[in-house]
Amino acid sequence: MKELSPFRSIKGRLSSIYAEERALFYVGLLGILLGIIGIIVMAVHGRFIPPEGHIYKAASFDIAIGIYILTIILFIPLAGFSMRGRKLWRWTSVALALYAYVVENIQIYRGLDPRFTRHGTAVDNIVGALFGATALGLIATFLILTWRFFSKRSGVKDRLLLLGVRYGCASVILAFLTGFWLGANQGPKIGAAGNLLPLHAAGFHGLQAVPLVALLLGWAGVRAENARRWVHLAGLAWLGLCAAIAWQTALGQSMLELSAATLLACALLLGWLACALMASVAWRRAGVVPYST
Predict the structure, then answer these.
(1) What pairing do the DSSP bridges indicate for beta strands 48-49 and 289-290?
(2) Domain for residue 5, yes or no?
(3) Domain-located, residue 8
(4) In whole angstroms, what separates CA 59 from the centre of its chain?
(5) Last residue of a domain, one of 101, 127, 155
(6) Could you tell me which residues come within 8 angstroms of residue 25 by beta carbon, excluding any fewer than 6 positions away?
(7) CB within 10 Å: which end of the chain, N or C, has fewer?
(8) What global pTM score does this model have?
(9) Structural domain boundaries, residue 205
(10) Burial class (CB in 10 A: 0-12, 13-18, 19+), 246
(11) Does 219 fall in a domain?
(12) Region 178-187: what's the mean pLDDT?
């Protein structure tokens, strides 16, 4: 089996996967570009367009969706879709993401809240309702992907990686549940200083954090029993981190405020970092990664 240096191997594998999903790849890049444009607009114009247009919300939304799509692309080849099923999943996701970008940005730059406007017309309210349906559609596409990883339909042969992906999917489900919390609360603010956005972000980043540990351990050739133990520790630490953030947020307190919840969150984050560091060191010592991984 041909072997390359670790970084060249990863670069080659990523290029191959993204080449297979060009449409989704460009949609992901579009989100990041729109977010950067929003940041530039904020620097020139300010953060707010009356009466409801918070530009930073559009910028953060665009970048978050873009990163989510670029991440989720990496899992599509592992889901075991048929060619027809993969095509349907792909173009459904593209359509939903594009609609979300259009509504989020046009409405906010018009000075309207894209979800719960109080100053728009009946048409704006309908657009907002469809925007909510689009969010449900994105959740549905992710749940379809998740179901394949928890069923026998998965195309993942590496049981260690599959374990990491399952933890990552569980974390994203928590992020989507936080999204429902955001909708019911009609905004991210909870109590005096609580904010749902850190919890929302932590949930989505679990899709990167835990599978990464599994990949590094697998590439390093760590003994299966020990590797699975480390992936379980990393996954439970990340899910526990989300739970601690939710605890602090539900109390209406900022994550910067010292409390039992924030101390627990810090401890769990350090626990995940220890797992990631150990996996990274093992991988670097191994020196090479099979290109076909």
Answers:
(1) unpaired
(2) no
(3) no
(4) 16
(5) 155
(6) 18, 70, 73
(7) N
(8) 0.86
(9) 159-286
(10) buried
(11) yes
(12) 81
For residues 138 and 208, membership in a common domain is answered with no
Which residue is associated with the tokens 């991210």?
188
From the list 231, 243, 240, 239, the residue with the least C-alpha distance to 278 is 231
Q: Is residue 79 classed exposed, middle or buried when 0-12, 13-18 and 19+ CB atoms within 10 A define those classes?
A: buried
Q: Same domain, yes or no, for 131 and 256?
A: no
The residue type of 26 is Y
CB 185 within 8 A of CB 157: no
Contacts of 154 (CB under 8 A, 6+ apart): 78, 79, 80, 148, 162
Q: What is the pLDDT of residues 157-175, one digit of tens each?
A: 788 999 999 999 999 999 9
Torsion of CA 246, 250, 253, 254, to 10 degrees: 30
Give the pLDDT band of residue 43 (cuts 50, 70, 90): very high
Query: Among 117, 132, 155, which residue terminates a domain?
Result: 155
Strand partners, 53: 49
